[in-house]
Write a structure and sequence with these properties.
Rossmann fold; 3 domains; binds 5-amino-5-deoxy-1-O-phosphono-D-mannitol; 607 residues; 8-stranded antiparallel sheet
């Protein structure tokens, strides 16, 4: 994991680079650093801590020089120390590198380099690369980088600068994301597109095993065997404003509030009259041959997959299984051409999901990516992609990405049902009406924010919480628990409500808050009411997410948060919002860094 930035041009590299680096902090934030070329030497400043703290102490953005590389780290190899923070240099300080990825054969390479007299100053895997470059350098920086890359095994997105080449930045990519930004007499490298903010909209996406040599006036691309390749830029429409907090205290809160808009954008241009119009986005997908769907995803995206399983089986009548992407390869999954694999990912860079996608393709499945980040690896490697169009999600806790994934999965389901002729036209009309009603209903739930902030005060000192739901609301219990634990560090467990009596009921006493998703439906409501009774009988405290107008539940639950009624299948998009808000407020009241929770990163690019 980690975020990297590089700059070569005529402006002060550190001012530009550090500004862009802030937008990559979601990729890791245990330490950061900068290296620039000034007056015939490389200046490196780095340390432990988040970018703003470190910048205030070390003034990284004030470094002089027009060529520089910048890094924000999420430790994989080597603890969180100043020595392990990037950039790294060779012992002569002639070369400097920033790297995102993992060098799998670094131990052997390090032993070899040490035997040859190289002196290492960190315990990272990355440092071997810069020593290899130093060893192979005979006057041509690109050649030295290419030779070093031939020695290493693993994944990398990297940027290299050298004292002897003060106006050159070399970058390379394999299995870790990297883009080149094309400016006016200047170039950038970055781990993702939004990092460049409003610097440029002209982007070149680097593919695996590609190297680029950048100067203020030129960008030359090469394959790993040194052959020149031609690449053209594309213009991305990315609203830099949406990567700012826009008056909210945190990105998480802003993104929770953006959900009605995100769902609107996810469904916009995909519904015409009373039809779902996904045909153009899925050219060549042979729907009649789909006999089975397997969903692979991680974390919140996996929860979206669990809900999609309900949707697909209920409305499109397609047998569906949901797999943790990280586990998928460790069985011997039965896949054939009748299997459609859905890979769900906000970032499009989650290493486990990417690996599952590749495994599925290797075994002959068609893969359809449900992805937010345009140009990401999962988007590019999938056979088909439906973008969720949620806009940049910066907060580490996934919120608007989740609901926009659900909106797209719902449209996909209705579309499949329509094409497979299992959904009659009047049902399709009703389903479309239901999703069109959602954004306004979500807005209404958001009006409860102040009430939920008040409710949150009661739970700030709790150490445990249980989340219960049944049927389609069971994944919402899981997601509610994940939100609470990741931002507030309170231990929380999501459970199918009926399973509680098979074990977790032993945990219930007057200190245990039990959040129950108890919205009214024909499927599970009555049973969930019985589960609430079971909790109350053991003096547990019940906080219910209920349907507007449900008076009955007020007699049973201690706290009731009411959401508008939509169909059973779409109800999760409403019931998750109070749970997101509650987690946010509890975390803020506990003084947690909600946008950058400890030990986490937004895009988990390691397996
Ligand atoms: O980018 P992805 O959707 O592939 O990310 C998957 C998970 O890492 C992510 O959902 C994670 O669980 C979030 N922190 C949850 O809020």
């Amino acid at each position: 994991m980690c975020g990297i930035i590089g700059y070569v041009g005529y402006r002060r590299a550190a001012a530009v680079g550090m500004n862009c680096l802030r937008r990559l902090e979601y990729r890791g934030y245990d330490s950061c650093g900068a290296a620039v070329i000034t007056n015939g030497s490389i200046t490196v400043k780095k340390g432990i801590g988040k970018i703003d703290e470190l910048n205030a102490a070390l003034h990284l953005d004030a470094l002089p020089g027009h060529t520089g590389i910048f890094h924000t780290r999420w430790a994989t190899h080597g603890g969180v120390t100043v020595e392990n923070a990037h950039p790294h240099c060779d012992e002569e300080e002639q070369f400097s590198i920033v790297h995102n990825g993992i060098i799998e054969n670094y131990v052997q390479l390090k032993e070899r380099l040490i035997a040859q007299g190289h002196i290492f100053s960190s315990s990272t895997d990355t440092e071997v690369i810069v020593h290899l470059i130093a060893q192979y350098y005979t006057g041509n920086l690109r050649e030295a980088v290419l030779r070093a890359l031939h020695d290493i095994e693993g994944s990398y997105a990297l940027g290299v600068i050298a004292v002897n080449h003060p106006t050159t930045l070399i970058a390379a990519r394999h299995e870790s994301p990297l883009i080149v930004g094309v400016g006016d007499h200047e170039f950038f490298i970055a781990s993702d597109i939004p990092a460049l903010g409003s610097e440029t909209k002209k982007i070149i996406i680097m593919e695996n095993k590609e190297v680029v040599e950048l100067t203020p006036e030129s960008a030359e691309f090469f394959s790993l065997d040194g052959k020149k390749i031609t690449k053209n830029h594309q213009v991305v429409e990315w609203d830099a404003q949406s990567a700012e907090k826009g008056g909210f205290d945190h990105f998480m809160l802003k993104e929770i509030f953006e959900q009605p808009r995100a769902v609107e954008d996810a469904i916009a241009n995909r519904i015409e009259d009373s039809c779902i119009t996904l045909r153009e986005e899925l050219p060549g997908l042979d729907i009649s041959s789909i006999k089975r769907i397997i969903i692979v995803a991680c974390g919140t995206s996996w929860h979206a997959g669990l809900i999609a399983e309900f949707m697909l089986e209920e409305l499109a009548r397609i047998p569906t299984e949901v797999e943790y992407a990280s586990e998928f390869r460790y069985r011997n999954p039965i896949i054939d051409r009748g299997t459609l694999v859905l890979a769900i990912s906000q970032s499009g860079e989650t290493a486990d999901t990417l690996a599952a996608l590749r495994e599925a393709k290797k075994r002959g499945a068609n893969v359809l990516g449900i992805v937010n980040v345009i140009g990401s690896s999962i988007a590019r490697e999938s056979d088909f992609v439906l973008f969720t169009h949620a806009g940049p999600e910066i907060g580490v806790a996934s919120t608007k990405a989740f609901t926009s994934q659900l909106a797209v999965l719902y449209l996909l389901t209705v579309y499949l049902g329509e094409v497979k002729k299992v959904l009659p036209i009047d049902q399709i009309r009703n389903r479309i009406r239901d999703i069109r009603a959602l954004p306004l209903q979500m807005q209404r739930v958001l009006h409860l924010n102040a009430d939920i902030q008040e409710i949150a005060k009661k739970y700030v000192k709790k150490t445990n919480a249980l989340y219960l739901g049944r049927g389609i609301n069971y994944p919402i219990a899981l997601e509610g628990a994940l939100k609470l634990k990741e931002v507030s560090y309170i231990h929380a467990e999501g459970y199918p409500a009926a399973e509680m009596k098979h074990g977790p009921i032993a945990l219930i006493d007057e200190h245990m808050p039990v959040f129950v998703v108890a919205t009214q439906d024909d499927q599970t409501y009555k049973k969930v009411m019985s589960n609430i009774e079971e909790v109350k009988a053991r003096h547990g405290e019940v906080i219910a997410i209920a349907t507007t107008g449900d008076e009955e539940i007020g007699k049973k639950a201690d706290v009731v948060i009411r959401v508008p009624k939509n169909s059973y299948i779409l109800s999760p998009l409403l019931s998750i919002i109070p749970l997101q808000l509650l987690s946010y407020h509890v975390a803020v009241l506990r003084g947690c860094d909600v946008d950058r929770p400890r030990n986490l990163a937004k895009a988990v690019c390691v397996e």
